[in-house]
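Design review, sub-item: ligand-bound model
Attendees: FS, YL, KQ
YL presented the inputs for the 6-diazenyl-5-OXO-L-norleucine complex:
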Amino acid sequence: MGYQQILEEIYQETQQFSHIGEPASYIPELTKVDPNQYGICLKTMEGETFHIGDSNTPFAIQSIAKVFSLAMAFHLRGEKLWKRVGVEPSGSAFNSVIQLELERGIPRNPLINAGALVVADILLTELEYPEEQFLKFVQALCHTKDITYNESMAVSERENGFLNAAIANMLKYYGNIENDIERVLRFYFRQCSLTMNCEQLATAFLPFSDHTQPFQFEETKLTSSQVKRINAIMQTCGFYDEAGEFSFTVGLPGKSGVGGGIAAICPRRYSVAVWSPRLNKKGNSVMGMKALEMLTTKTEVSIF
Ligand code: DON
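KQ shared the predicted structure:
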């Protein structure tokens, strides 16, 4: 069976879950999005593209941006990065504060909010034009300039981002933020507001799916080992306290966002992006999780 037929079957068979879950409401701007949209795009290493549904409708990628900022910081700092942030799954919510206090300001991993705030701080220290350079990196990964920050999303999140502000303050207290907290928060929220569609996300993740190929986009160059390690972190930490469930049911490295997007890769085969704004209690897209579970079931290929 070809990928297009598989996507069509998945699209039909997941309709039974289409009313389950609610879009994230803690970011007011996200509540303006029609929750019933649903799209999938899959891109193969051989250069083929398959899509279905609302795969060309842009949405805020939210936490999926954490993979891109991690890639930049890993390039800039190399192994020293791990002095500031760990590589262990958190088993906690993406915005948990408790663990950060117990572990004295060292976030468990770069894909939870605390870790991404440290990564944002590193980029602010290292880059001359952080916001422009971050955007250019993602544009280069997608081969298009047609990607922008959603300013009203970023502002909406800053105005209501009390928990993230608490996390940033805790990090600063423990000496794990160098820059002004407000600058770090604003940069982080802009990253989360990045607006892309499934096709662009699948394109951006394709280079992560083959560590044997050179990885260089704008100034960001990763070694084969670094690409593998980013995959390892996505596998173990990409879905917060549902990382085990995603490994169990899907079996691919991936990353979710509260905008309802999920990007995942099947090593040396394909990248895939799914979008449906209705989330489960852990903040991951209900239809997205189901679609990817069906994808690895129907293709009979996962990393295991
Ligand atoms: O910082 C936040 O809470 C959001 N901008 C991003 C959280 C997120 O996407 C978690 N993903 N499932």
